[in-house]
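Postdoc handover notes: sequence design on the structure in folder B. Input tokens:
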């Protein structure tokens, strides 16, 4: 059995280990904010092994200024 990782810790690790290096490499001057927002026990820090059955997993939300959004 694998050790349970709380959602906030999982998402922070995902961002720092995978997403941030890609953003820094391809968009080095980009100013942004990133975080985990919304509803759910993982966002509030109340998640446990059972709560992994819904909306649990590595993710983040990235916020850009309007001038940095490429369409």
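Designed sequence:
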């Amino acid at each position: 059995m694998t050790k349970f990782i709380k959602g906030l810790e999982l998402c922070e690790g995902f961002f720092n280990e995978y997403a941030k290096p890609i953003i820094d490499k391809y968009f080095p001057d980009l100013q942004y904010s990133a975080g985990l927002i919304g509803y759910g026990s993982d966002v509030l820090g109340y998640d446990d092994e059972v709560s992994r059955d819904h909306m649990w997993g590595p993710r983040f939300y990235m916020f850009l200024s309007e001038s940095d959004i490429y369409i």
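Context for whoever picks this up: The chain has a mean pLDDT of 88. Don't rerun without checking with the PI first.
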